[in-house]
Amino acid sequence: MSAPTVDVHAHVLLPEVDALVAGLPGHAEARELDARRNGPAALAVSGPMVRERIPRLTDVSVRLAAMDAQGVDVQLVSPSPSHYNYWADEETAEKVYRLANEATAAHCSAAPDRLRGLGLAPLQHPEAAVRALDHALDLGLAGVEISSHAPGRELSDPAYEPLWARAEETGAVLFLHPFGCTLDERLDRWYLSNTVGQPVENAVALSHLIFSGVLDRHPGLKVLAAHGGGYLSTHIGRSDHAWSARSDAGAGCAHLPSSYLRRLYFDSLVHDPHVLRELVRVAGADRVLLGSDFPFDMGTEDPVGVLRAVRLPDADFHAVRGGNASALLSLE
């Protein structure tokens, strides 16, 4: 029997988390930063876009009907990255991750054979992030979703070593999904905040994990990068050259940077069949998983059709369609 079709990049909106943080010190400033980064034209389009999709983001029956129409058997559901709230103090952050984890688990429990979930971990408080991961796993979630950085901290920060160690020990999935790009107002027109910003943040975050030796110290870590890992896979040769040519670039990791792509996982959402073929080539057909960014406008309504258009060998097509995700998530 062939593996189910599994979409590993699908989101749930959690109004209870937004209600929890509304009006708290720091919340307005975070919203203002987000507005500055995106610009008024993007916000004018994004507001109605999200509102139109609220049923798919919150109602399990609507979600399942959409999955049926797409030919998707199972979704790995993660909170909308707008729920990260990395500005929050430790007490608030604890409330946020507990509520987000519980609400996501409840959403998925309405269709346990078709929905697996991910929780949140507050990267701005590394010790709390470990507790958040344990809380998510205790609820039956597959792991947690994290952004590309937290204020003042990159993923290479030694403070995250306990999080990587715990994730490796438990076999948890860490879904790397950026929210916001630190290029700020340089990207505030034409939706560059997303089209350029997300791939940049993915590439920067993964480079921190690679070059700092995190993946050497934690070879069993299960990191799944959204958006195909951004620009990294198509430009990894530049990283390899630097590692070979410069002592500073090669100081932190033991092997060629490109070799670490085969230790990471990537979703298939790159919007270009040639780029997806290249991702499969450099990471391996066993490391790329179907992803749609359900149900947002920067995703795809037909993830299986998009994958089929790449014309991969049959075995590779079925691995990406669902076999790899079935193995990663231990689906029956």
Order of helices and strands: EHHHHHEHEEHEEEHEHHHEHEHEHH
- The structure class reads alpha/beta
Strand content: 5-15%
Number of strands: 11
Helical amount: 40-55%
Which blocks of ≥5 consecutive residues have pLDDT under 50?
none
Fold-level CATH name:
TIM Barrel
Distance between the termini: 11 Å
CATH homologous superfamily annotation = Metal-dependent hydrolases
Main β-sheet: number of strands, strand sense, barrel status? 6 strands, parallel
General form = globular
Shape-level CATH architecture: Alpha-Beta Barrel
CATH class: Alpha Beta
Indicate the radius of gyration in whole angstroms: 19 Å
Summed up:
With 332 residues, this protein is of the alpha/beta class. The chain has helices at residues 15-21, 27-38, 40-52, 54-58, 60-70, 90-109, 126-138, 161-170, 192-195, 197-211, 214-217, 236-245, 273-283, 303-309, 314-328, and strands at residues 6-12, 74-79, 115-117, 119-120, 143-146, 149-150, 153-154, 173-176, 222-225, 265-267, 288-289.
